[in-house]
Specification:
Helix content is about 90%, strand content about 0%. It is globular, with a radius of gyration of 24 Å. Helix 1 packs antiparallel against helix 4 (about 130-155) and helix 2 runs antiparallel to helix 3 (about 95-125). It starts with a helix and ends with a helix. It folds into 2 domains: about 1-55 and about 125-155; about 55-120. The chain is built from 4 helices and no strands.
Amino acid sequence: MKSSSLNTIWGRFFLIGFVLLATATASWAQRHDREEMQRIQDAKIAIITNRLNLTPDQATGFWPVYNEYSQKRREVHRQQRKIIVEKRQSGTTDEAVLANLKEVQDLKQRELDLEKEYQSRFLKVISANQLAELYKAERTFNDMLLQRLKKNGED
């Protein structure tokens, strides 16, 4: 009887240790992902700030509007990705494919409408040249990020 209770105690210690290790590993991975996302966000901010050459007054008005715009645009992109993932999982009937295409087109229109809406808001804070430079800076940043992801995928 002593042997089986000893095995039970060691089993519990093992289980507790395993759970603690798994929790610590998951926590480290989440923290690492958050840190990586923060580094990416910081790099994007640096590129935009550098390219737009914002005055302190412009920066004060620009960043809240830009952050709001970025958040709404990310949500539209998340919805587009969700549709694409669901399309792969669901049947590929013509009706389903057409419904997915229409939904993606509607989301692209929402993104365009969002860009038009925020263009006028940006122009209250920055010049038209700075706005054009913003769009270029975003493209440059996205290209750099894609190249980095490709490189990391090859390594």
